[in-house]
């Protein structure tokens, strides 16, 4: 009984025998498949016919054929057993291989997620964490159980939980720290190239915008060293090659340790980081594990489904 309803079904064993016999159109071959005798198959079929009060097979000397009733029952039962088999296989696969797949940008995986993987193993020793570092948008059902995405937070049809907003500010090695913004006229500026899509965006966190907000003039905002990969820009700044306008999220560890310093308080607003996943995956163990772990690391409580 489930939900107050009693299912009135014949024994599953008899239905399974019928499906095998109907699929093979042979009691003998069905018996071989089920590892029972042909007599047992014939007996089960006859009992099923008596229970249903309908004839399911026309019996010939060497072969059997489905009746109209048998033809109506067979595809429904076949498809149901197929789904039953698939569901059992999925459960076994999840139990045998507990893999949680989390995707995010290359930079975020490298700078924020990779250093935290030990905490995942401590919290979930029976699980394997698979991090997909990719700047492409992946299918959040086929290719990943959840994602940490950087953007404006508009992900239609997905559950979205806000983690935090990013900010950009000048950072550098301590020995290169300027005493005032005017000193930037003589510094090597390091840039992350946002690409054509955002190069002319007035809201993009780039040197041009920061210098304007700081009121600094006579500085070539495009001069210096430019990188198309954020990690490379961070590495150049850590190596003391110049002053970079970088994501404070990506250099949080370097700032905390003193490897880098933030010489000015002024910072620029940027996109935000969200945990997103498909509502159809929300109750799956892998998605729940990832959600609990990510929220424990980065916090946040704004959960909503964007439609």
From TrEMBL:
This is LysR substrate-binding domain-containing protein. It holds the Pfam family HTH_1. PROSITE patterns: HTH_LYSR. InterPro entries: LysR-type_TF_proteobact-type (IPR058163), LysR_HTH_N (IPR000847), LysR_subst-bd (IPR005119), WH-like_DNA-bd_sf (IPR036388), WH_DNA-bd_sf (IPR036390). It comes from the Bacteria. Belongs to the LysR transcriptional regulatory family. Keywords: DNA-binding, Transcription, Transcription regulation. Residues 10-67 form the HTH lysR-type domain.
